[in-house]
Specification:
heterodimer; A: 414 residues; Aldehyde Dehydrogenase, Chain A, domain 1; Aldehyde Dehydrogenase, Chain A, domain 2; 2 domains; 40% helix; B: alpha/beta
């Protein structure tokens, strides 16, 4: 095991490590501005690691401008320097919750670090479980942090822990000793972590499991002049994180209108997918995913003689074209179902809270406004322009990222 | 002559050949031509299948390789109603796979002609391994699985597929009212005493042979003294691997119980979706493909065929079915390609070894939902 990621193999070790993190968090104040200074340098230092999926997004997230605006929005004025903020006769100031435990998805390389930075900005200690398959990648990114965090201002507040996902004793020890938890992942993983024996006072923040979709009106997708640009944006959103993120689109709803033919749009989309695949070819795949991709292609076309599909002989990408207002179960692996619909508002009104992000390509601003309102009412947490579906920002999944992991202390002066 | 009659003639010609000794290039060309005819026929018979074939990235009419032809993933045979190329009045038999817990079984529709070809294909293959003679047949299963039914499980189909080699058939297991299996000692021991020193054919599912017969007789130190027994088994190794029983230990145990040599124990790979084709191990431990079939092992990353020494997903190809579109089926099993035409046993064409089921998908990130929050029917989009 590397120096920056510890292999923890007993509950006692876990308890000791958490206790030490809590002591540091209590004894040494850490203002957000000090954290941001280091994270901004880390962003620059990560430049050479663009081969790691998602590093480009991590670098954007870590930039000073991004983080300062989030801290100000979530914690209020004066929070950057860890100062009190006046509120009537009282004053408010954010203090760390203590130690925050992080359980991230095992397949999103940057997620342990994204999660970590949210809690660090609140001055917390962090116990981060790193999935076995992410250890080497995480180590490379942490080495860059180590290089800019010369006084270990941040790293002394962090324990990156690696242990087998089946070690429920270690998961349990981690859960028992943390004051807050940030949990990311799929349905099964999240359910398992939520069932751990957290203290009654522990704040538990869950991100995922969610799905995302895209929608376009006919004025947008039917415009031959803009079509290829929109297709490129969409391809980018599909390719990022190999469609395994909660913000990955699996379905694109095309609103009919103006006599435009969805097949023409799909032809342009095919070029965009081919090009994206050329630039970002898949280097490995789980055999089960290959089987699932082959199955969804066949099932789609066998389900109805009117359904269409475009795909290469390889499992690299798949576009399924049909009609209907219900989202098919996602396959992942760069599989996009394109559904022609009569009314996007009707589609959005069927969303049931599963949908996290709705990526839009809508020309009419008023229509976009109506769609955004309807989407918000039906459980969608993020409504963004196509091409920006993965831009990590606060709030995420409808919740703030820093504020839930701090205590806002109110001081009413005598 | 109708398209179907032409196809039937082509299949018959291939079934009459010695199954493993045609020049691989010649066989490829024969199969390619016949498979193209079968695809065209299936497209005429089933508009949904035609839709699939028409969207395939390569036009099958101009394909130059079997590997370029449109194949179906094995999962589509779990659909209900099953994929078919015949009317309901023509259905002679429905083969049902043995699905693992919680999964739907595959259903394969056979008409009379396909059922006959299935039997013929199986006999042609097995004959090449055990010889043509008829002999007493011991079935390591229950009498119920000897009965011909319209809907037939994989075990029944495999058992009854070997009936052509039998002079008499004896089963040596019985099932309780709850379905628990136990050994019918009386039947077994009296048959063994009667058949001493005769050529005997034995068949059972691998797991059933081990748990119901071999384990208990080994415990008692009992041998059946059938040195001329040929023990065929199939059905996969997963459950035995879970019990840490290796292939070697299995063959050793079976040989000890029957009192025969280990090389008389023959494992074969097969599935209901690949009707009439099985893949027994040759004396060198390799599996071979008969004249009327083909195996393509595909790289999961590219789905391109892999070469010798490489592992991939098994695609089975067979010209035998005309009642359902099971000509080209991508399985969820893995194989290691051993060679392209070099097995010392003399059988021509690709040789391979079964390498187990492909692992199940791991958890797939925060986009991996289990279901909607508020259950509602998820429908496939239709045009």
């Amino acid at each position: 095991m590397s120096g920056l990621i510890q292999c923890i193999d007993s509950p006692d070790t876990m308890v000791c490590a958490t206790r030490r993190l809590r002591e540091i968090a209590q004894q040494k104040a850490l203002a957000p501005q000090a954290v941001i200074e280091i994270l901004d340098q880390w962003s620059a230092a990560l430049e050479g690691l663009n081969d790691i999926p998602g590093v480009a997004f991590l670098r954007l997230w870590l930039r000073r401008g991004n983080l300062e605006s989030i801290v100000l929005r979530e914690l209020g004025a004066n929070a950057l320097h860890g100062e009190w903020r006046e509120e009537g006769r009282a004053r408010l100031r954010a203090f760390p919750l203590g130690v925050v435990g992080h359980w991230s998805a095992g397949n999103i390389a940057i997620q342990p670090l994204l999660s970590l930075t949210c809690a660090l900005l609140g001055g917390n200690g962090c116990m981060v479980r790193v999935a076995g398959r992410l250890v080497a990648i995480t180590q490379r990114m942490l080495e860059k942090l180590q290089a800019v965090d010369s006084g270990a201002v941040l790293l002394e507040r962090v324990v990156m822990a690696s242990f087998d996902h089946t070690r429920m004793d270690l998961h349990g020890a981690m859960a028992k000793t943390v004051d807050g938890a940030m949990i990311w992942g799929g349905a099964e993983a999240v359910s398992q972590v939520r069932a751990l024996p957290f203290s009654p006072w522990a704040r538990v923040l869950v991100f995922g499991p969610r799905l995302s979709a895209a929608a376009m009106d006919a004025e947008t997708w039917g415009d031959p002049g803009e079509r290829s640009a929109w297709c490129r944006r969409l391809a980018r959103d599909v390719w990022q994180f190999d469609q395994q993120a909660c913000s990955s689109p699996h379905t694109l709803f095309l609103e009919r209108g103006g006599g435009c033919d969805p097949s023409e749009f799909v032809a342009a989309l095919r070029h965009a997918f081919d090009e994206e695949n050329r630039q970002h070819p898949r280097l490995q795949i789980e055999t089960a995913l290959t089987s699932a991709i082959c199955l969804v292609r066949a099932s789609w076309l066998l389900a109805h003689a009117g359904n269409r599909a475009v795909f290469p002989p390889s499992p690299d990408w798949t576009i399924l074209l049909g009609a209907g207002e219900d989202m098919p179960y996602p396959t992942q692996g760069r599989t996009l179902t394109v559904l022609a619909v009569d009314d996007l508002l009707k589609v959005v009104s069927k969303f049931d809270g599963t949908l996290q992000t709705l990526g839009l390509g809508i020309r009419d601003a008023q229509k976009e406004e109506r769609l955004a309102q309807a989407a918000g009412r039906h459980g969608v947490d993020r409504i963004v322009k196509l091409g920006r579906m993965h831009v990590f920002s606060s709030p995420w999944d409808g919740t703030e990222l820093i504020r839930p992991m701090v205590r806002l202390v109110r001081h009413v002066r005598g | 002559m109708s398209a179907l009659e032409k196809i039937e003639q082509g299949i018959e010609r291939l079934l009459m050949q010695a199954p493993y000794y045609i020049d691989p290039c010649q066989r490829h060309d024969l199969l390619l031509a016949l498979l193209k005819q079968e695809l065209a026929y299936a497209c005429d018979r089933n508009p949904r299948f035609r839709n699939y074939v028409e969207q395939w990235p390569v036009d099958f009419r101009v394909a130059e390789q079997i590997a370029d032809l449109p194949y179906l993933p094995v999962g589509v045979f779990k659909q209900n109603p099953p994929l078919t190329l015949i009317g309901s009045e023509e259905i002679k038999r429905v083969l049902v796979s043995s699905a693992t817990t919680g999964q739907s079984p595959s259903r394969v529709i056979l008409d009379t002609a396909t059922a006959k070809r299935m039997a013929k294909g199986l006999v042609t293959i097995i004959r090449d391994f055990i010889g043509p003679s008829r002999r007493p047949y011991l079935v390591v299963d229950t009498p119920e699985n000897l009965l011909a039914r319209t809907e037939m499980g994989a075990r029944s189909a495999a058992i009854q597929g070997l009936n052509s080699f039998a002079t008499e058939v004896v089963s040596c297991l019985r099932a309780s009212a709850e379905g628990d299996l136990s050994l019918d000692r009386e039947n077994l021991l009296s048959a063994a005493a009667r058949w001493k020193f005769a050529e005997v054919l034995v068949y059972g599912f691998t797991f059933v042979i081990w748990t119901q017969l071999v384990r208990s007789l080994l415990r008692e130190g009992l041998t059946l003294a059938l040195p001329q027994a040929r023990v065929l088994h199939s059905g996969g190794w997963k459950r035995l691997e879970q019990q840490a029983v290796s292939r070697q230990a299995f063959s050793r145990g079976v040989a000890a119980v029957f009192g025969c040599s280990e090389d008389r124990v023959l494992d074969y790979y097969g599935m209901v979706e690949n009707v009439g084709v099985v893949y027994p191990d040759c004396a060198y431990g390799n599996k071979h493909v008969p004249a009327f079939a083909e195996i393509i092992v595909r790289d999961p990353l590219t789905l391109a065929p892999v070469g010798a020494g490489q592992r991939g997903l098994i695609q089975v190809c067979s010209v035998l079915p005309t009642s359902f579109p099971g000509f080209l089926v991508l399985t969820e099993d893995l194989a290691d390609v051993q060679g392209l035409d070099q097995c010392p046993c003399g059988r021509r064409g690709l040789s391979f070894r079964f390498a187990g089921r492909a692992p199940k998908a791991e958890l797939r990130g925060c986009g991996n939902i289990e279901d909607t929050r508020y259950p509602q029917e998820r429908k496939a989009g239709v045009a």
